[in-house]
Amino acid sequence: MRVATSTAYSQGVTSMNTQNYKLNKTMLQLSSGKRIVSPSDDPAGAARVLGLNQAKSRTEQFQKNINTLKSSLQIEETALNGVVDTLQRVRELSIQANSDTYDASQKAIIGLEIQEHFEAITAFANTTNGNGEFLFGGFNSRDVPFENIGGVVNYNGDQGQQFLQVSATRQIASGDNGFDVFMNVRGSDNANPASTAPMSVFAVVKELETLLRTSQGTAPETFRESMSRTIGNIDKALGQIADKQSGIGARLNATESQENVNEDYLVQLATTLSETQDLDYTEAISRLEREQIGLQASQQTFTKIQGLSLFNFI
Hints:
Blueprint: H1 5-32, H2 43-97, H3 104-125, E1 146-149, E2 152-155, E3 163-167, E4 170-173, H4 178-182, H5 201-213, H6 220-277, H7 281-306
Antiparallel strand pairs: 1-2, 3-4
C-alpha cells in the first residue's frame, strides 16, 4: 500500500501531540498530587470526590456551629452561676434578717445590700455573647431583654429558643429564653398569698428588699411569716435556675459527644478522599519517564519522516 508523504507527516504530528498530551497530563498530576485532574480522567471517581467534598464541607460547618454553640452555652452557664451565687447570698441575708435580734434600721441596711444584688441579677439577665447578642432574649436577641422601671423588671424578649445544626439530623438549643429562666417562678406573693400566678426572680428579690426596708412598725409575727414565704420563693427561684443549669450541662455533654463523632467522620472522609483521588507517585514518576521516552521517539521519527521526500534525492 502506498503511503503519501503528507499522510506520514500528519501521523507523525498526531503521534507527537498525543505523547505530549500524556506527558503534560502526568506532569499536572504530579504537580497537584491528584490522580483525577479533570472529570474525564475518571467520571465515576470524580462524582465520588464531589460528594465526599460536599460531605466534608457540611461537616466542617457543623463543627463551626458546635464551636459557636459551646461558647454560647458556656457564657450562659457563667451568667447563671452568677445568678445562683447572688441568690444564695440573698438567701443568707434573708435568714440573717429574719431574727428578732435585728432592729428595723439594721434590717433596712440589709435591704440596701439586697438592692445591689437585685441590680446584679438584672445585669446577669442582660448578658451578651461575643457578637453582642443578648443570651436571654429568645429570638429577639438584639434588644435588651430586661428593663428595670422603678424597681419592676419587664421582659421585652419572646419565648423562642434558638437551635444550631450540629449534624445532618441533629439540632441542639444554643440558649434559653429569659421568660423560662427568670419570669416563671411558682412562688407565693406576700401581697396576694392566695395567687397562683408565677413570679419573676426579680420580683422575689425586690419583695425581700421591700420587706426589710419597711419593717418598721410591722408586727414580729407578720414579719416572720412574710419572710418565711419570701425565703421559700428564693428557694424556688434557686431550684428553677438549677434546673436550667442542669439542662445546659446536658447540652454541653451532647455537643462534645457530637463534636467527637463529627471529627471521626472527617477523618474517614479524608481517608476515602485520599484513596479516591490521591496520586500514586511511584507509578506516576515511572509513567512520566516512559512518556518522555515516547515523546523523544516520536520527535526522532518525525525528523526522519521529514527527510523522506523524493526532492531530497534529486
